[in-house]
Amino acid sequence: xxxxxxxxxxxxxxxxxxxxxxxxxxxxxxxxxxxxxxxxxxxxxxxxxxxxxxxxxxxxxxxxxxxxxxxxxxxxxxxxxxxxxxxxxxxxxxxxxxxxxxxxxxxxxxxxxxxxxxxxxxx
Length: 123
What we know:
Helix content: 55-70%
Strand content: 5-15%
Distance between the termini: 64 Å
Keywords: Membrane, Transmembrane, Transmembrane helix
Strand order of the largest sheet: 1-3-2
Number of strands: 3
Radius of gyration: 24 Å
Structural class: mainly alpha
Order of helices and strands: EHEEHH
Oligomer: single chain
Largest sheet: 3 strands, antiparallel
Number of helices: 3
């Protein structure tokens, strides 16, 4: 995944995202990823999602007739995006499941220690 800054894009970046997609380059404007709670991305621009397509994308900025070396079909782009979302969902589900288990055991251990301390103190 490589980034093209808006300042390096001659014209409207959203039009270039459309051009890239039309030419078979998997790309998204970073505004599609932004969340109101997270302002870590100071720059605006286009993410070229496959590193192998970055050079073609930069050439298309100046030469719209450029033929992309490894274009993806719309179906391939849809499959890649869908599979990436599935993988992210599985990874986050697994992470939060492990986190919940560990948190449960920590609370259980702390509760047992607290009760044990008060039972010993009372006797």
